[in-house]
């Protein structure tokens, strides 16, 4: 038993992955927070943030960012009792009422929502276990009201000095070698997702972290939406499309060479799959259009490729793009690549050549 922690009775029916793989729930104080400890050393950082929630004493806690009317907060935790302790990353989320039951039961569906903390934890664990591209999760905290979780905290390994892919990409506009390495690393990640049948569903360049050691595998974060039931070809098209649409500055009229480059990568990934022909027609649409809500990426994955109505998908994406009235980047002349886009195309060519 962890010193100073009180074991809580199993008052709620909780998902099996949580009860089987972690020690908990335990309470460290009367803060109202209950903790599931996935790794033994997690008691220290969990206790540190629990103390902060109870007292407001922020020693050892740095609030990194606060988002969307306080529904999410991000912290760095550096426990002060052990100065040599590693740092930890914590993501705190407030659950809207609709998602609370799903979070309690560990269920994801249209009624109870998908991306609550329970789903994110389960996906994080799966990604980290099955690939080299996940982030270690150490503990999970919950605050209940009326029998349902209303807040959750995911406590993870802190990626020290790592940066989001888009930030590194922009910083090294003139470094073709580095950009080739980044794209090759990204391709390795897609291979790994394909081999494990994982669809991230929000793999934009801000959700891909790059190590200061460029040889280290990239890590995918923000796994709340992840799905394990998808056609491999459609899933690969979605990964590539979402990523390249954003890396290309969300241009509504990408150069044909970019779409060709994307399709070559798709071929390298899933050329042998039955769904490739459909995925190859789908990918240019995804490179061209934003697939953010209200578009449902999940719905794309639900169909078998031969049942996917691409004309309807195109119509819907087009309509949504017009409604969004994208600012500056969309205003480029159609078909004429910007300098930025030309460089992206050149980097894609370069990496395909390096892979041969
Ligand atoms: N384990 C980690 N270690 C260090 N920094 C991290 C870690 N996980 C995430 N971050 C940083 O926190 C940011 C937000 O994380 P995440 O993407 O999970 O949340 P989010 O709610 O989607 O926020 P955003 O919409 O800004 O991406 C990331 O862009 C990254 O810079
Ligand atoms: Mg994110």
SSE map:
Elements: E1 6-7, H1 16-21, E2 23-27, E3 33-37, H2 43-55, E4 61-67, E5 72-77, E6 88-94, H3 97-105, H4 117-130, E7 137-145, E8 148-157, E9 163-164, H5 165-171, H6 176-196, E10 208-210, E11 219-220, H7 232-247, H8 256-270, H9 276-288, H10 297-302, H11 310-324, H12 339-355
Antiparallel strand pairs: 1-2, 2-3, 3-7, 4-5, 5-6, 6-8, 7-8, 9-10, 10-11
The structure holds adenosine-5'-triphosphate and magnesium ion.
Residues 206-207, 222 line the site of magnesium ion.
What percent strand? 15-25%
What structural class do you assign from the helix and strand content? alpha+beta
Q: Total number of helical segments?
A: 12
- Unique bound compounds: adenosine-5'-triphosphate, magnesium ion
Which strand order do you get reading across the main beta sheet? 1-2-3-7-8-6-5-4
Query: What is the residue-mean pLDDT, rounded to a whole number?
Result: 94
User: Could you give me the name of the CATH homologous superfamily of the largest domain?
Assistant: Transferase(Phosphotransferase) domain 1
Name the helicity range: 40-55%
Domain tally:
2
Oligomer: single chain
Biggest sheet layout: 8 strands, antiparallel
Radius of gyration: 22 Å
Distance between the termini: 55 Å
According to CATH, what is the topology of the largest domain? Transferase(Phosphotransferase), domain 1
Extract low-pLDDT stretches. none
Any idea of the CATH class of the largest domain? Mainly Alpha
Mind telling me which CATH architecture of the largest domain this is? Orthogonal Bundle
């Amino acid at each position: 038993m962890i010193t100073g922690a009180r074991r809580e009775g199993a008052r709620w029916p909780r998902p099996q992955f949580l009860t089987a793989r972690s020690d908990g729930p335990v309470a460290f104080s009367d803060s109202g927070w209950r903790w599931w400890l996935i790794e033994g050393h997690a008691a220290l950082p969990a206790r540190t943030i629990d103390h902060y929630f109870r007292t407001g004493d922020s020693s050892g806690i740095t609030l990194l960012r606060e988002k969307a009317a306080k529904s999410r907060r991000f912290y760095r935790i550096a426990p002060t009792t052990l100065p040599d302790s590693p740092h930890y990353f914590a993501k705190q989320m407030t659950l809207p009422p609709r998602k609370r039951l799903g979070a309690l039961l560990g269920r994801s569906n249209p009624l109870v929502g998908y991306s609550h903390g329970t789903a994110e934890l389960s996906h994080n664990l799966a990604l980290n276990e099955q690939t080299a591209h996940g982030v270690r999760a150490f503990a999970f905290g919950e605050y209940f009201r009326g029998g349902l979780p209303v807040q959750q905290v995911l406590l993870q390994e802190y990626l020290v000095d790592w940066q989001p892919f888009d930030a590194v990409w922009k910083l090294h506009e003139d470094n073709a070698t580095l950009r080739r390495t980044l794209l090759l690393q990204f391709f390795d990640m897609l291979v790994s997702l394909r081999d494990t049948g994982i669809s991230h569903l929000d793999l934009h360049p801000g959700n891909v972290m790059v190590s200061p050691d460029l040889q280290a595998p990239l890590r995918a974060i923000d796994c709340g939406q992840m799905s394990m039931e998808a056609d491999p070809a459609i899933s690969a098209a979605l990964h590539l499309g979402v990523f390249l649409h954003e890396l290309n500055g969300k241009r509504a009229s990408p150069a044909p060479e970019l779409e060709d480059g994307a399709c070559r990568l798709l071929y390298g990934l899933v050329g042998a799959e039955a769904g490739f022909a459909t995925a190859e027609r789908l990918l240019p649409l995804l490179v061209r259009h934003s697939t953010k809500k209200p578009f449902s990426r999940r719905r794309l994955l639900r169909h078998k490729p031969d049942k996917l109505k691409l004309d309807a998908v195109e119509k819907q994406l087009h309509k949504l793009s017009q409604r969004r009235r994208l600012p500056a980047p969309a205003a480029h002349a159609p078909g004429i690549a910007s300098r930025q886009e030309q460089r992206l195309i050149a980097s894609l060519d370069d990496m395909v050549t390096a892979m041969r």
